[in-house]
């Protein structure tokens, strides 16, 4: 038995929420609201967020990482940390790449933890949401056609989100697995009653040509969307930084917007610290970040002809902002289990 020679204080209890419970207590609209708040907080200089810490455990391949993402949002007075498990080489039978993410929320006043929740769904949903919020500020208001490259979970949430801001008439989709396009179409019809026309394409180029909004959400580690395919006035939103996007766009687009300069300069742009260094990328070509635009410090789209590219590698502030709403909704609904820590 361990003997502790310290004065005992009040007990510490933590609300634990599993994946299903997280999904039960939050809506897509609430997630988009939280994501926009997180970016605005950063733009207003009210976000404390160290650069992510990456721990690779399979050197020299470095495909499997743990990522530490601590943050404090002054606007909602919430601190927390996302402990991300990014494993590309899973053992047989283990769930997909990002399963295993955990979010911990702490009181600012005394530092004690008060919630632990699965962050798998939050990761997928907030990633889709930041693509939607980026489009809200950077795409043409009269956008009619969207291109979706990669038909995974994130993209399946992004399109319904876009329909909340744009009168889209057509979505051209492409995935290297044809069955994923079938699943995508079926899921979109379940999520929305919009009469949007889903067009299954035979190539990335066919999908991207003439699209007003292009969302690239794949795990490819080489460019699969070329700069010369992007139409005048288009907004390109890449969710895997520039790994699957032609790096020429960083120079030839009218504006290259990051999600957050501090985190993205480190993980995307700077070759010394980037997870996947790309020689052509330079901080000199960055126009602004989304937080600056949302906070009104920098102008986003200025005309209908600008080609704008947006890249972001994600940041803990997005997860913590969403987690705060999840926690409040769960407490109100009496969902989750209280665990005694001390």
- Estimated helix fraction: 25-40%
Instruction: Please work out how many helical segments DSSP would assign.
Output: 10
Query: How would a crystallographer describe the biggest sheet?
Result: 8 strands, mixed
Overall 3D form: globular
Tell me what the CATH architecture of the largest domain is. 3-Layer(aba) Sandwich
**What is the number of E strands?**
16
Q: Look at the structure and give the mean pLDDT.
A: 91
How many individual domains? 2
CATH topology of the largest domain: Rossmann fold
Helix and strand content put the structural class at alpha/beta
What is the first-to-last residue Cα distance? 16 Å
Going by CATH, the homologous superfamily of the largest domain would be: NAD(P)-binding Rossmann-like Domain
List keywords for this structure.
alpha/beta, eight-stranded parallel β-sheet, ornithine cyclodeaminase, domain 1, 342 residues, 16 strands, eight-stranded mixed β-sheet
Q: Explain this structure to me?
A:
This protein has 342 residues and is α/β, with parallel strands linked by helices. It has 2 domains: 13-122 and 317-340, ornithine cyclodeaminase, domain 1, CATH 3.30.1780; 130-314, Rossmann fold. Helices cover 31% and strands 23% of the residues. The protein has 10 helices and 16 strands. The strands form 2 sheets. Strands 1, 2, 3, 4, 5, 6, 7 and 16 form an 8-stranded mixed β-sheet that branches. β9, α5 and β10 (197-200) form a beta-alpha-beta unit. The protein is globular. The model has no long low-confidence stretch (mean pLDDT 91).
């Amino acid at each position: 038995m361990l003997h502790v020679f310290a004065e005992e204080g009040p007990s510490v209890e933590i609300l634990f929420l599993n994946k299903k419970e997280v999904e039960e207590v939050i809506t897509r609209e609430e997630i988009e609201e939280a994501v926009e708040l997180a970016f605005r907080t950063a733009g207003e200089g009210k976000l404390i967020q160290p650069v992510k810490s990456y721990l690779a455990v399979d050197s020299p391949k470095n495909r499997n990482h743990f990522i530490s993402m601590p943050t404090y949002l002054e606007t909602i007075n919430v601190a927390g940390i996302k402990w991300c498990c990014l494993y590309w080489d899973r053992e047989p039978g283990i769930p997909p790449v990002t399963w295993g993410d955990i979010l911990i929320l702490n009181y600012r006043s005394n530092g004690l933890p008060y919630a632990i929740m699965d962050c798998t769904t939050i990761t997928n949903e907030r990633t889709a949401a930041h693509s939607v919020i980026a489009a809200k500020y950077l795409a043409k208001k009269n956008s009619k056609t969207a291109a979706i490259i990669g038909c995974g979970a994130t993209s399946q949430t992004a399109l319904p989100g876009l329909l909340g801001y744009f009168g889209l008439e057509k979505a051209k989709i492409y995935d290297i697995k044809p069955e994923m396009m079938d699943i995508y179409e079926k899921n979109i019809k379940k999520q929305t009653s919009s009469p949007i026309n889903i067009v299954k394409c035979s190539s990335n180029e066919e999908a991207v040509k003439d699209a007003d909004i292009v969302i690239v959400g794949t795990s490819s580690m080489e460019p699969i969307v070329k700069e010369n395919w992007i139409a005048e006035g288009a907004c390109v939103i890449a969710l895997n930084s520039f790994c699957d996007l032609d790096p020429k766009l960083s120079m030839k687009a009218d504006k290259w917007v990051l999600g957050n300069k501090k985190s993205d300069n480190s993980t995307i742009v700077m070759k010394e610290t980037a997870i996947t260094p790309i020689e052509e990328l330079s901080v000199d070509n960055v126009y602004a970040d989304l937080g600056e635009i949302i906070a009104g410090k920098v102008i986003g789209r200025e005309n209908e002809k600008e080609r704008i590219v947006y890249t972001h590698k994600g940041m803990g502030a997005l997860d913590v902002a969403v987690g705060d709403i999840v926690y409040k909704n769960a407490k109100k609904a009496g969902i989750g289990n209280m665990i005694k820590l001390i």
